[in-house]
Specification:
The protein is α+β, with helices and mostly antiparallel strands and 428 residues long. 53% of the residues lie in helices and 7% in strands.
């Protein structure tokens, strides 16, 4: 039994030895705790000495090659765990007609030629909120969530909505789908309540979206075209051009726009800010880059900060057919069908085979190998929009004179940043 779950290797920092000494049922709980408090040193030892760590509940992979294999082989490693949380939404499916059709539709309505205006919108909205804050703000609720919700309302077409409602609907869906799986029971106190909250949020969101598309449909009939994603989706559905894209599918995909925007954007922006504020010399460079008209240099600082402090440090999949990971190495392991596999992409972004000198903060690193927006079939649909929103939110903060963090991030017992206070020199 011991050998089944933990291959013995020579440990560097002692994590594997400590795991080996624990009862089987306590090992994942301890590893999960280290992931929150000692992540990079833990991952370094795992990459070097046990890149495929088998535990009773799941298997963990930490090297770049294995993480990419898990995320790109959708026929071998599926998103089956999404299904109970997301029903028939295309994201909970792999190589299906619904997945390809509806993802293609959503990519077409999220017009990449509007990225410049996306950034301008975020800049203006963030600048206004920060100016009105008069020198102090909880940057989570007062800026990052607020701008993201406003973007959904004003750019995606969710008009006549309450920001608090949009937040609740998005929050519980994200929480349940990505932070309330069976393996999360070691950190989640009341998983049943989270499911109930997500179900209630989904029902209320559905009621709102039905009214929204009814309103949009009436507007289209009298010649009013809002030219936002909500309207574009409805126009396509009403045209009859796609037989299997009825109003019910419009509603499913509109819900995905909300759920995929708010908490993901806020969390990433907060994590980038935290990392930059903890690096005074790098912060000075980032502030200087933020002053330039061309944001491309500045964006590199945000993306590199997210490599050190990602909002999504891992992705989970289910093995569908027997396969081998770490093939051709002394650490090769055979993974059985039904095994939950966690690809720790935070670790993969410190693998020297893909990231030279990984401990060096290098804002000029290419983005190609990063996992900020996932990789493979389930790469983030809105990665281009999210990239603009996240980087510009951080940029607007760093444009504030003398800005500094005056608190640590408070998660309030959950998976997302809930409060993070900043202060700066405010002049009327």
């Amino acid at each position: 039994m011991m050998k089944r779950y933990l291959q013995k290797f020579c440990p560097k920092n002692g994590y594997l030895k400590k795991i080996e000494q624990l009862p089987l049922e306590q090992r994942w709980r301890q590893v999960r705790a280290w992931m929150d408090t000692e992540s990079l040193s833990l991952y370094e030892e795992l990459r070097e000495s046990c890149p495929v760590l088998e535990l009773p509940e799941l298997t963990i992979v930490t090297r770049f090659s294995d993480c990419t294999s898990v995320l790109r082989q959708y026929d071998v490693f599926s998103v089956a765990l999404y299904k109970p949380k997301q029903s028939d939404f295309w994201m909970s499916q792999d190589d299906t007609a619904i997945h390809w059709r509806e993802k293609a539709i959503m990519r077409s309505v999220l017009d990449l030629e509007q990225l410049a205006s996306t950034r301008q919108y975020v800049a203006a909205k963030a600048s206004s909120l920060l100016h009105n804050a008069q020198g102090t703000i909880d940057v989570v609720g007062g800026l990052c969530r607020a701008v993201s919700i406003a973007f959904v309302q004003e750019q995606f077409g969710f008009d006549e909505s309450d920001p608090n409602d949009l937040f609740e609907w998005s929050y519980w869906s994200q929480y349940d789908a990505f932070h309330n799986q069976a393996f999360d029971s070691v950190v989640v106190k009341d998983p049943t309540q989270i499911v109930a909250n997500r179900e209630a949020a989904g029902q209320n969101l559905g009621v709102y979206l039905i009214k929204l598309i009814q309103r949009r449909g009436a507007e289209l009939k009298v010649g009013k075209d809002n030219n936002d994603p909500a309207t574009r989706l409805l126009k396509l559905s009403m045209s009859g051009a796609l037989e299997k894209f009825d109003p019910a599918r419009v509603i499913r995909n509109l819900g995905g726009l909300l759920i995929g925007t708010v908490e993901t954007t806020s969390h990433a922006a907060i994590n980038a800010l935290v990392e930059l504020f903890e690096r005074p010399e790098i912060l000075k460079q980032a502030i200087a880059a933020a002053q330039k008209d061309d944001p491309s240099e500045f964006d590199g600082y945000v993306l590199e900060a997210l490599r050190f402090n990602p909002s999504l440090p891992y992705f989970f999949r289910v093995c569908e057919q027997e396969t081998q990971l770490a093939t051709g190495t002394d650490y090769a392991r055979t993974i059985k069908p039904g095994t939950t596999v966690i690809a720790i992409t935070h670790s993969a972004m410190f693998d020297e085979t893909a990231f030279p000198q990984p401990q060096v903060f290098d804002p000029t690193r290419p983005e190609t190998n990063t996992f900020h927006f996932g990789q493979g079939l389930h790469e983030c649909l809105g990665r281009h929009i999210g990239r603009q929103m996240i980087t510009e939110l951080v940029r607007q903060v760093l444009l504030l004179p003398g800005v500094k963090a005056v608190s640590k991030v408070d998660y309030k017992g959950g998976p997302f940043p809930e409060e993070y206070r900043l202060e700066w020199c405010h002049e009327e």
